[in-house]
Each structure stands twice: as C-alpha cells, then as structure tokens.
Design a protein that fits this description.
The complex is a heterodimer of chains A (324) and B (309). Chain A is an all-alpha fold and 324 residues long. Chain A has one domain: Orthogonal Bundle (ABC transporter involved in vitamin B12 uptake, BtuC), CATH 1.10.3470. The longest helix of chain A has 27 residues. Chain A is globular and about 55 Å long. The relative contact order of chain A is 0.17. The N terminus of chain A is likely disordered. By secondary structure, chain B is an all-alpha fold. Chain B has one domain: Orthogonal Bundle (ABC transporter involved in vitamin B12 uptake, BtuC). Chain B starts with a helix and ends with a helix. Classes of the chains: A mainly alpha (324), B mainly alpha (309). Chains A and B meet through helix 5, helix 12 and helix 14 of A and helix 3, helix 4, helix 10 and helix 12 of B.
Chain lengths: 324, 309
C-alpha cells in the first residue's frame, strides 16, 4: 500500500502562488505577445483545476471517470443559459453551477457508482455522451449545435480573467490538500486500495464515493462556468467533448502524476505547452491526437505514476543517460 | 390501430432486428475480450473503423464487394489485435501503478491514435461504398399480392444480418466444440485453474484479443454497405458494444447476442417514435435501466431461470 499523501509538506504552495500572480507582468517584457501568453497561462490554470478535480475522484478515491466533460459541460451551460435565457451575466454561472452540477453529480452517482472499476469508468463515458446528444437535440433550450454566444466581453484584457481563475485554482488546491489529509481523504484512499476491505472496516463506501464524485464534479463545473465567461462561446461538441475534455483531464493527471499534490498542475503545464508546440509545427498540427495518444501509451507503460509520482525513476533514467 | 400504424411498427421492428444482429457481432467481440482479459477494450469501435476502411479501400481500388473483404479485413484485424495485446496491453498488466484502470486508459490512447491516423490518411470526409445493390429491397407485396400492409426488407441489411448470424454460429461452434475454444472459455472462467490444467494462458489472451478484433473487423465490413464512414465513426460503436456487454451480462456470449438484438430494436423504436437524433439517447436509457434494475444483465436472468426455484 502506498502512502496516502505523496510528499506531504513538500513544495511551497504560497511561493508558487506568488510566482504565478506575477505572471501578468509579462506584458512589460518587450517583444513578447503578452496576450498570447496570458491565454496559455489561463488555459494551464483552468486545466490544472480540472486535473485536480479528476485527481480527487479518480486519483485519491480510485473511481476512474471518463466523463468529466459532463460536469464541465453542465457548468458551462449553466453559465451560458443564465445569460441566454435570463439575461444575467455569465459570471453568475460560477455561483449557480455549484448546486446545479452538485445535483447532477448526485444523480450520476446514484446510477454509475453501482459499478466498479472499469465499468464505472465506462458508464461515465455514457453520461458525457448522453449530455452532448441531449444538448444537441434540445434546440429550443440550449440552442442546439449553434451553441451560446456571450455577446459582450467583460474585459478585453486577459489579466482579470487570469486572476479569477488563479483564485479558483488556489482555493481548489487548498481544499483538495486539506481534504486529502483529513479523515475523509483516508477513507477515499482506503476505498481505492480495497473497496471490500474498506467496507468491512465500517466505511460506508457508497456514501464516500458519492461525496468524492460530487466534490470533484462541482470543482470541474466551476472551470466549465469560467470557460463560458472567458471564451464567450460554447457549443455541445466543445464542452461535452470526449477526447478534448474527458480524456484530456485524464491525460493531464496521468502525465503529471496520479494521486499527487502537484501532479495536475505540472501535467497541465506539460499538456498545454505540448498542445501549443504541436499546433505551431506545420503539417504536424492535425496529428495532435496521435501524438497525445502515443504520449499517453508511453506514460502508462514507462511512467505509470506520472512525472511527479515517478520523479525518482525519471531522475535515475536521466542520470544513467548522462555519462554515455 | 389502423393498418398504417401497424405497418410502421412492424417495419420498425424488422429494421431493429436487422440492426440488432449486427450489434450482436460488435458486442460479441467486446464480451469475449472482456471475459478473458477482464478489461474493457475501449479501442473496439476504432478497430471496427479500421475494418471499415480496409473494406472501403478494397472496394474503391479493386471493386471488391464489402462482404468478400471480410476475408481480408478479419485476418488483418486479428493480427492488429494480437499485436496490440502482446506489445501494449500485456506490458501494462505487469506495471505497478496506483490505478488498475491503466489498461482501460491505454486502450483509449490506442483508439485515439487509430482514429487520428485514419483522419490523416483519409481526411475527415464522409464516405460510402456505393454498392449497386444498396437500394434494392424485397417487398411483401411481391410475394403476397393481397397483403393489406406493405413491408420491405432491404437487401444489404438482410445480407449483412445473415452474415452476422453465420459468423455468430461459427463462433459458437468454435467456442463450444474445439479444444482451443474450450481453452479460451477455461481461461475466462478461472485463469489460474486453466494455467494448472496446462492451458497456455498468455497465448489464449493474445488469441482472444485477436479474435475479438477480427469479429469487430468483420462487423465493420458488414456495416460498410449500409452505413457511412468517417474516421471518428468508431466512438459510437465502442459505446454500443459496451452497452450490449452490460445488457447481456459481462463476459456472456449468449447475453451479448440477446443484448444486441434488444438494443437494435429499442434504438429503432426510439428513432421512429421519438426522433432520429434521439436514437443514441435510447441506447443509454436502456443502459441506465439495466444498471438500476437488472445489474447482472440477461445472463443473470438466464441463470436465475436455470438454478432458481
């Protein structure tokens, strides 16, 4: 059995936060397209939130989800519909998404948490796909394939978007950190390691799995609601995407390190940078799913615990290579 | 009910059964891999997509009939499946990781690569194989002149269905009557006991993954005359296969056949009475209902009949 918390106490969250908060200063650096970099920073922070959300449910509690796009999409559509139907600012979506996504997650949990392991994983895919199809077909309510367009942007500049998502990320990081170190966190890990043993020790596994699912979903929904306000446009194919949201969430954590504190953040940096690099290389751009897929396969075979989890192995690997 | 309504209902049921027969073939491939490997192969639909493209290329270049290309596609897919199992899935089974679902995530990666490679080679255009019998059909009124209702039976759909039935029967014969089939079933039942009885479990796993891929590759060839083809076509069939596996009971071959037929009929009914776009939702409604009310699927119902009372 592994230690429930990898490297407790290591890494200095406040120092990292301060460094991140200074990132908008990039606008002062001459010759740098600050807007472009801010966009990437925002995406990295957003993906690390989604990664932390996935890590909570799947990394710590062991319930691998292939359907985080469902929660991301519900969050995004909550914000979008508030704007389109009620004329409210899409920012209210970040508040409204909490009860909406939470309720949806309870329902999903009631159905899917009856299943274990890979079967739970697959049932969550189904949830994501159902929601996409529903959003595409309920044209009167969601606007169907046309999606929802937020016509007025809150800010032209990206600095404030960055600080908002950074605040959400910092809160999430703190929350997950505390949660994992608490009694609840130990229950989660116990369920992951051996559900039957956990059950026999008197842990109400269904209840705790549901708690993990709802918390994870709400965090992911927040990222979704932010996405609507930030991007200003959503449609079912984008926010309920299987590969570009659900699998991307898995990749961020798998690459960074499953059930590690910094894994999702580091995974998000690697994945977003990689996506940008691949996109800018001419002719290779269309192959980005192939490269991601190959990366995923390589990581699973050689670094099953991600860059953070297998840091020791990675270091050894590099050290052996150096003299030759 | 007036004759027109009965006509629509019967026609819907017929097309549902035909579709279900093909679904059963997809589900069978998934369920035997599931039974032996204890993993869900999420690249299943993508393997089917590869089968469809093989049949498509043979049709476009050599004008080979999609039904004949089964003879090419199935062995190729068998090889592909065996290679995936030996060089990708097998190493991961031995890796020590926190999440045992690594293998499932691995198959997602494989599926992504296959779909993306297909996009690069064939572009994301929709393609069809315009076989000359595509629109042919048999009509009830041709056989029974005074029939009060008119029913039609599409030629390619029926032929595909018959092929599916023949392949399924062949698979059943293989699994129940041959030594190799028995070894596969033994591995599925209890891998350690099978190993002690002298079954080469590693080889059986490789063979089963190949067989499952070959089955779904054949299903791809059967779908080509009646369906359109694009690189991302696989995803929906992976999900279909999975729903059938759940519906039929995990790892149960007979359950998969029943599950496929039930799902086909249900989807067809949804498409007729609710709307075309909602057919995939119908699929998942069945899935959710089964999970809530019959968690063991058809297989558990059968077992209860046999051993109950």
């Amino acid at each position: 059995m592994r230690a429930p918390v990898a490297n407790p106490g290591r890494g200095r969250p406040l120092a990292v936060l301060a460094a991140l908060a200074a990132l908008p200063l990039i606008a002062l650096v001459p010759g740098v397209n600050a807007n472009y970099w801010m966009h990437n920073f925002i995406l990295v922070v957003m993906w690390s939130i989604i990664g932390m959300s996935w890590n909570l449910l799947s990394g710590y509690c062991g319930q691998v989800s292939f359907g985080h796009a469902a929660f991301f999409g519900i969050g995004a559509y909550t914000a979008g519909l508030l704007y389109a139907k009620l004329g409210l600012s899409a920012w209210w979506g970040m508040l409204a998404s909490v009860p909406v996504v939470g309720a949806a997650a309870l329902l999903v949990g009631f159905i899917c948490l009856r299943l274990r392991g890979p079967f739970f994983a697959l049932s969550t895919i189904a949830i994501g796909v159902i929601l996409r199809i529903v959003a595409e077909n309920l044209v009167g309510f969601t606007g169907g394939d046309q999606g929802i367009m937020i016509r007025e942007r809150t800010w032209v500049e990206k600095t404030w978007y960055f600080y908002i998502i950074l605040a959400v990320a910092a809160a999430t990081f703190w929350f997950v950190d505390r949660l994992v170190a608490s009694r609840l966190g130990y229950y989660f890990v116990a369920i992951r390691e051996d559900q039957d043993a956990a059950e026999s020790l008197g842990i109400d596994t269904t209840r705790y799995k549901t708690i993990a699912l709802v918390l994870s979903a709400v965090i992911c929904g927040l990222a979704g609601a932010f996405y609507t306000s930030y991007m200003g446009y959503i449609d079912p194919k984008v926010v309920f995407a299987l590969h570009d949201v659900s699998v991307m969430a898995i990749m961020v954590v798998m690459v960074g390190g499953v059930a590690t504190r910094w894994g999702p953040a580091i995974g998000a940096v690697i994945m977003i940078l990689l996506a940008e690099i691949i996109r800018t290389i001419p002719k290779v751009g269309t192959a980005h799913h192939t490269l991601f897929g190959v990366l995923l396969i390589v990581v699973i075979i050689f670094l099953p615990n991600g860059v953070v989890g297998d840091a020791g192995a990675l270091r050894r690997l590099l050290r052996i290579r150096r003299p030759s | 009910m007036n004759p027109a309504k009965i006509e629509v209902l019967l026609q819907t049921l017929i097309s549902g059964l035909l579709l279900g027969g093909l679904y059963a073939l997809i589900g069978l491939g998934m369920t035997i891999i599931m039974g032996v490997m204890k993993i869900i192969n999420l690249a299943h639909g993508e393997l089917m997509m590869v089968g469809m493209y093989i049949a498509y290329v043979l049709f476009a270049w050599l004008h080979l009939d999609p039904y004949l290309s089964i003879l090419v596609a199935a062995p190729l897919l068998f090889l592909l499946g065996a290679i995936i199992q030996k060089y990708l899935v097998n190493p991961v089974l031995k890796v020590d990781a926190i999440l045992p679902e690594n293998q499932v995530i691995l198959t997602v990666g494989i599926g992504m690569v296959l779909a993306n490679l297909a996009t690069m080679i064939f572009k994301s255009d929709y393609r069809t194989a315009p076989v000359d019998y595509a629109t042919k059909a048999w009509y009830l009124s041709d056989i029974w002149k005074g029939s009060p209702i008119e029913l039609s039976l599409s030629y390619p759909w029926s032929v595909s269905f018959l092929f599916a039935v023949v392949i399924t029967a062949g698979l059943w014969f293989f699994l129940s009557r041959t030594d190799m089939g028995k070894s596969i079933r033994a591995t599925a039942q209890d891998k350690d006991a099978a190993l002690l009885m002298g079954v080469n479990v590693e080889r059986m796993r490789m063979f089963t993954f190949g067989l499952g891929s070959a089955l779904v590759g054949a299903a791809g060839c059967l779908f080509l005359p009646i369906y359109y083809l694009y690189p991302d076509v696989g995803g929906q069939f992976t999900l279909t296969g999975f729903v059938i596996t759940i519906l039929g009971g995990l790892g149960s071959t007979f359950g998969a056949i029943i599950g496929g037929l039930v799902l086909g009929v249900f989807e067809s009914l949804t498409a007729t009475y609710v709307g075309m776009g909602w057919a995939p939702v119908g699929r998942f409604v069945v899935f959710v209902l089964v999970l809530v009310f019959v968690p063991g699927g058809v297989a558990s119902l059968l077992r209860r009949r046999r051993f109950g009372k």
